[in-house]
Amino acid sequence: MFATLLPVGTSGADGRGSMVRRTRQEAAATRETLIDAAEQVFRAKGVARATLSEVAAAAGVTRGAIYWHFRDKAELLEAMCERAAMPMEAMLDATGSDRRDDPLGHLRAMAVHGLSRLARDSRVQAVFDVLYHKCEFMSGMAPVAQRQRAADHDCGRRVIALIEEAIARGQLPADCDPRLAAQLMKAFMIGIMHEWVRNPGSYDLASAAPALVDALLAGLVAKPPRRTADRPRARIGHSARAARH
Question: Whole domain around residue 54: which residue ranges?
Answer without folding.
Answer: 6-83
